[in-house]
Amino acid sequence: MSRVLYVVAVAAALLTSAGAAENAQQIVDEAQRRVTTKSERYEGLLESFNASGKKTSEKRWTFLRIGAHGQSKSIIRFTAPAEVRGVALLIVNRADRASDQWMWTPALARDRRIALQDRSTRFFGTDFSFEDLEEREAAQYTHQLLGEESVAGAAAWKIEAVPKPTRSSQYAKQHVWIRKDNYAIVRIDSFVKEQVVRQLEMSDVRQVGGIWTAHDTMMTDHQRRTRTRLRLDKVEYNLPMNDDDFTVQALRRQ
Amino acid sequence: MKRLAAAAALVLCSTVVQAQTFTHRGFAEGRFLAFPQTTVTDGTRAIADGLLREEVFVTPPTWAWLQFAAGLDLRGNSHDQVENAIDIGDRSLRRPSVSIRRLSATVNYGRFTADIGKQFIRWARADVINPIDRFAPRNYLNVVDTEFLPVSGVRPSVQIGNETLEAVWTWHLTPSRMPLLDQRWTTLPPEAAGISIEDAGSRFPARGQVGARWRHTGGRVEWGLSLFDGFTHHPHVQATPIMPPVVPPGPVPDANEGDGASEETPDDPDASNGDAVITNIEITRTFPRLRMYAVDTAIPTRWLTFKAEWAYFAPPDHALRSYTLFVLEVERQLGEWLLTGGYAGETNAESAPPLAFDPERAIAPAFVGRASYTVDPRRTIAVEFAARQNGDGQYFKGDYSHAIRQRWRATVTAIVLSGSNDDFLGQFDRNSHLTTALRFSF
Prior knowledge:
The complex is a heterodimer. Chain A is an alpha+beta fold. Chain A contains four helices and 13 strands. Chain A has helices spanning 2-20, 24-35, 130-133, 248-251; strands spanning 39-49, 55-66, 73-80, 88-92, 100-105, 110-113, 141-151, 154-163, 173-179, 185-192, 195-208, 211-221, 226-237. Chain A starts with a helix and ends with a helix. Chain B is globular, with a radius of gyration of 25 Å. At the A-B interface, strand 2 and strand 6 of A face strand 1 and strand 18 of B.
């Protein structure tokens, strides 16, 4: 009985939300609100494929985040392959500019400020650029509803996001698909001029702690015709975390 | 010291049994170096080198604030650069066949962290030359392909917001390992031809070293202030001529005997050695006291990142003069390119002791640069150079690295050195070489 009530309540909430989503900005704000958490942890598997579809590399890491969006801090700590095990990246996101980043390299026994004037730089040579890995802050874009389309059988809003002048970006615009049933982002096409250069597809969307989370993300670089898949495992939200563990000093702890 | 190491190993082993968090990393690497030219001191053109390294990190199950780290190197070398010994202090002239690379405990409690034991301590901000890195001795058996050596000490630090205050105490000096006297990276002046050099070892200071550093991170400007009171880890060489033995007094030969070649009398010792040729020199490595006051900064801007280190060195020994070393560097990420260029300079360079082995002082003033390109997740290419400001010496390095599957990596490196014989880089102009390395990581 309680289960039925729960389903009805969720359906009512969704209908209310959909009704309230009169414009693209509201939809994006709602999507962002639904994934806003105090903290996050997951184990990631990053697989790169060349133009002929052959897997060329595989990297594993643990990801920790505290805070959300423009106020968040993240640490990516590589666990495989063996040659990069222990390499760690601290990302301090800024609402008004590119994130600050430091990398800890065990072989050199030192941390190093990462020069990130060009966020189009590929992350460890994969198809994700550093900008692609930053959290999207809805307030940094101007949004326009382009229509509705089906993505993998699910109805979705198609929204154009143009970075505001204060937001430096390698992309002229992005098309974002947001599922109507759960407000999960399921696809992002990124444009340079009028050409799609990268396409991000999210699938295996499951609820974790009340958050709809895509566990499988595929980035396709249309210019190089290569792909990189990011799979998430052991996703957890709102874990107790300490701000002191997201510092340059903390990076050198293995 | 050995007792301390044994106790730490015992604690580590007992911890491993019940550990919940255990990580390790290691690799086996084979390297082959080919030198097209021989030198006066070294006729060997091909050198093979092997290294097996393993590091483990253990956090006890109920003590998340404590972590133990241990690392071991096993080495072999075809050119007598490795001695069969177990070395904990890293003070041997050759690399030891068994070396404790790391043996430390890390205590972390909130904002407080302390590392105790054998560890690596890096203060470097820049990427090409690091005058402020006073706790980072190196292995210079190959002067242009060096490796950092660990130091033994205590390193407590406190981080409050963006500020970190750190203190360092090392209980003994770990010296940089200078080139072996009978190998190609030791060059001798022409006047030294025919002179036998006897190695009298090293005279190490009895006391430890201390340092302190205040570091500001984050924001638009990062900076650090560093103080150091210790010893130079770069050896100064004391050369003592060994005079031929004085001819013992004896009966004056009859002028009619022999061929009359000697007109000297044995009562005049000066006369007996006045024209003696020095055939032996005894050298001793010493490590004079050194104080350093330094600042460093990194300023990321929209277009470039500026990095700088400036260090003022004031040796308490009045026989040595003070000097400054500095490096100014700019860095730019451009797509898959990472470009770094800079200038390393020195003031009061003429005060450098003539027989000090100090590559950082010797290379300045010079222009330095590096460019690396990430081809794809498996392949990288990098080039770097150093060119002396007076044009007397140049160094160029090209490097191609290729990962094979998940565990293998092959690297080919070409190093070209050129210049005049009286220049630090130029003196090695017969040491250009090609290195191929194959590494298996586990």
